[in-house]
Amino acid sequence: MAKSNAKKIREKSVREGKRNPEANRSPFIFADMRTRKTKTKKDYLYCKKYKNQSLNQSSDGSYFLPLLSFKVFFTI
């Protein structure tokens, strides 16, 4: 890959005996300081709160479809 102009200027200043600006960076710049935790049961329930709700509000996931039988009589 090509070098950026900023990197070229930094390398030139180091060659001339000046201080490297990369040395001024904090050691924590590369550390990921975010804390992570696993989701609790409450978090999982909150995520699923509005998902997969059907119109009849049944919790078993089944549907009721009544079958109507029509008897057709043919006369000859």
Structural notes for this entry:
The protein is an all-alpha fold and 76 residues long. It has a domain at 1-33. The protein is built from two helices and no strands. It has helices at 5-15, 41-47. Residues 1-26 are annotated as: Disordered. Residues 11-22 have a biased composition (Basic and acidic residues). Residues 1-10 have a biased composition (Basic residues).
What attributes does this structure have?
elongated; mainly alpha; 2 helices; 76 residues
Short description:
The protein is 24% helix and 0% strand. The protein has a domain at 1-33. By secondary structure, it is mainly α.
Secondary structure layout plus pairing:
Layout: H1 5-15, H2 41-47
Biased composition (Basic and acidic residues): 11-22
Biased composition (Basic residues): 1-10
Region (Disordered): 1-26
The N- to C-terminal Cα distance equals 90 Å
Order of helices and strands: HH
Radius of gyration computed on alpha carbons: 35 Å
Number of helical elements: 2
